Amino acid sequence: MRLKLSYLSRVKQEQAMTEESILQGCLDNLAIAQEELYKQFSPKMLGVCYRYAHNREDAEDMLQEGFIKVYSQIHQFKGVGSLEGWIRKIIVHTCINALKKNKKFSDSVDLALASTIPVNNHNIPSILQAKQVVECIRLLPIGYRTVLNLYAVEGYSHKEISLILEIEESTSRSQYTRARGLLEDILIKKKILQKPRENIRMVSVT
Amino acid sequence: MERRFDMSDFEQSLKDHADQFTLIPSRRVWDGIYNNLHPGSKWPSITVAIVFIITLFTIGFLNNSSKKLSSKADSASDAKSINNNYLAAQNPVASGTNSVLANKTNAEKNNSSEKENGVSFIDNKETVKKSGNEKLNTAVNTRQSKAVGQNGDQLFSSNGKNISPNTKRTIPGNKIATNNINSFNYEITNQRIIEEENNEILTEDYNSFMTPGQSLFIEFQPTEPHYINYKEGYTLIKNTEDFSSSAQLIASSRLETHINPLKKTINQSKKIHRKKNKNIEWTYYVTPLVSMPVFRNSSLASSVNFSPLAIFQNAASNGMIYHANFGFEAGAKVTYALSKKWKVFSGLNLNYSDYNLVSNLVHPTFATLTLKDKNTGIPYSKSYITFYGNGQSLNQVALTNYSLQFSIPIGLEFQVWGNKNIQISVASAIEPSVVLKNNSYIISADKKYYVQDPELMRKTNLGGNFGTFISFGSNKIRWHIGPDIHYQLLSTYKNSYLSEEHLIDYGIRIGISRKY
Fold first, then answer.
1. How far apart are alpha carbons B426 and B406 in whole angstroms?
2. In angstroms, what separates the C-alpha of B454 from chain A's closest C-alpha?
3. Rounded-to-integer distance, Cα B135 and Cα B231, Å
4. Phi and psi angles of residue A166, each rounded to the nearest 5 degrees, phi first
5. pLDDT given at position A191
6. Do residues B480 and B510 make contact, with C-beta atoms less than 8 angstroms apart?
7. For the whole model, what pTM was predicted?
8. Does residue B28 sit at the A interface (CB-CB below 8 Å)?
């Protein structure tokens, strides 16, 4: 109780919750600080989870599990790098673990399946927005999607991906190449990307 | 992990866009995290529910106990009144033998009993002062103190029933007129007759009236001729033993005369109590349910002829594939008997209804709902992103539409047939309700997908309930069992959604009731 009061008074003095005060509050296991941290990072982290998950409910489950890990391991954060990056790393690993646990990752790494993905041409408007790009990524089979997310979005190397996903490095490379090709096709179909493919650039179409 | 620096434009662009993407998580995520991090405060909702149920039972119990207590108290006070009456009748005898009133112990006991009953009584001195006879007050007090001081024996038993006056150990020099005793009794009689006319004040007045050494003074009027005789000092009884026996005879005959109607009055008052209590009955019940939806087309203006609306024309063409599921209902109700056959009831009720939709996982896609503008009534479409397709496929999932509602049923009960042990009754109630929690997947305009939109859900509703049941058991505790149907009269959705969903629950209600 005393901790909470002192924390609140400190926050009041600062008039805004800084990252340090939030961190300190989380270290003291104060719900108010934990909620503040959650409010600050959860929308972005749910976006991350959503790219990996099968549906939104799964994404929310991943987010929940991820944040619980964040709070329980917050004392391990040494201030090297950004807090967001550290949280994101935990969230991504939680997503991968969830996929492994549910065997959703290994179930859909078959390339043959990728060509038969039904693409709903009429339902995605041709406006380049983050949401549309993410939705296009999510149209990929989950195996491709995971490799693409880890390599292109999170910036992991193929070696790291092979360790994380427990697959061969060459498998990671080939899956990424195929995933990228497939995504390009989808984006071009949706008129989010323009040809020629040699110099692919995303453009906004109004 | 170190960021690669060989990222192409495509990857960089992809990353930028992906990083911009945010989603607002639902409240349940934080709740889950919070409950996990702070397990101590994990149970507020359960605690509240338990407290609510306990409160409900406590109210029911207290309702019962207070009535029991009051009836007990009534009986006790009645009994006390009889005793006090008897004592009062005896008091003049005691007064005659021991000059005035009972000994200290008995007076204390009676005083304390009066205090317990919460009956205020008038102090001797004040009363006498009010009557304007200070001399009498002094005389009586003197005698009383003498009686207390000199005659330590109890003239009455501790329960105040019947005790022979200690006539042998009288205080010499005590003076009291025989006629005074009659006068006292006369006063008592008059007072009681008045009181008998008013049952409500009977007990209280009677208690205060009958306090030895006190109530007598209240009624004693210095203008009485006996008092004047006494005051003037003639017709004094010196043989206290003779006086005692004659006074006892007078007292007991008067006691007989007045105790009988009093007893009658008490019995009548008890009967009234019993009769009143018989009308109220508390019932606690639980109903396992099978829930399913009934879909109906919402009324649309005849001029509206919009093609997507065709799917809502009847429930059969709704296109939803669903399975009924189990739900429950629990609550308490208080029943008041209007007549032998008719009863009216009200209470508190918690209802959980749900059903499963047959769905399949699809890649995220846009689905459209056709809604109606609440002001103009013109249909318009609203798009949603969904993961759930309608019907069966390889990625089959079961979506659950549920509703948790708290309601206050108000209804009537009619006894169709019955004897002392078994009755068959029908009951019907209307239930205004508040939706505590719900989840509903709605079918899209093209019948291919399910979408969720909490904004379309109604927060309050109205239900109807109909049931028949058999009651059996003892007079005090009875069991009720019988089929029960609950129908949600208003749609689960707001009027802006063109289709109407009405939940219907079938169940067997099991209840236990207690009469108070």
1. 23
2. 15
3. 9
4. 60, 50
5. 72
6. yes
7. 0.38
8. yes
- Let me know if A95 is exposed, middle or buried by CB neighbors in 10 A (0-12, 13-18, 19+): buried
Spatial separation of the C-alpha atoms in residues B385 and B366, rounded to whole Å: 4
Most confident of the ranges B21-30, B47-56, B370-379, B386-395:
B21-30
HSE at residue B316, side-chain half, CA atoms within 13 A, is: 0
DSSP B106-143: HHHHHHHHHHHTT-----HHHHHHHHT-HHHHHHHHHH
What percent of chain B shows pLDDT beyond 70?
51
HSE-up of residue A157 (Cα within 13 Å, Cβ side): 8
CA B388-B16-A57 angle, to 5 degrees, is 25
CA-nearest residue to B388 within chain A is A55
Segment B200-240, tens digit of pLDDT = 444 444 444 444 444 444 444 445 555 455 455 444 444 44
What is the percentage of chain B residues whose pLDDT exceeds 90?
14
CB B254 within 8 A of CB B466: no
Residue B164 has pLDDT above 70, yes or no: no
Query: Taking Cα atoms as reference points, which of B131, B152, B485 lies closest to residue B287?
Result: B485
- Is B9 within 8 Å of A55 when comparing Cβ atoms? no
Q: How far is CA B155 from CA A163, B57, B393, in A?
A: 103, 48, 97
Residue B301: the pLDDT is: 35
Any CB–CB contact under 8 A between B168 and chain A? Answer: no
CA pair distance B222, B129, nearest whole angstrom:
11
The residue assigned the tokens 């109004």 is A206
**How far, in Å, CA of B493 to CA of B72, rounded?**
54
| B23 closest CB neighbour out of A29, A50, A155 | A50
Pairwise CA distance, residues B443 & B318, whole Å: 8
Is A200–B36 a contact, with Cβ atoms under 8 angstroms apart? no
- For the cut 50, the answer to whether the pLDDT of residue A107 exceeds it is no
Per residue in A18-30, pLDDT (tens digit) is: 888 888 888 888 8
Query: Using 50, 70 and 90 to split pLDDT, how confident is the model at B483?
Result: very high
Residue B129 CA, chain-centre distance (Å), reads: 48
One-letter amino acid identity for B459?
K
In this predicted structure, the answer to whether residue A166 has a pLDDT above a threshold of 60 is: yes
Contacts of B387 in chain A (CB under 8 A): 54-56
pLDDT value of residue B48 = 73
One-letter amino acid at B384 equals Y
Q: Do A131 and B21 touch (CB under 8 A)?
A: yes
Q: Which comes out higher in pLDDT, residue A160 or B168? A: A160
Query: Which are the contacts of B335, defined by CB distance < 8 A and separation ≥ 6?
Result: B280, B281, B282, B283, B343, B344, B345, B413, B513
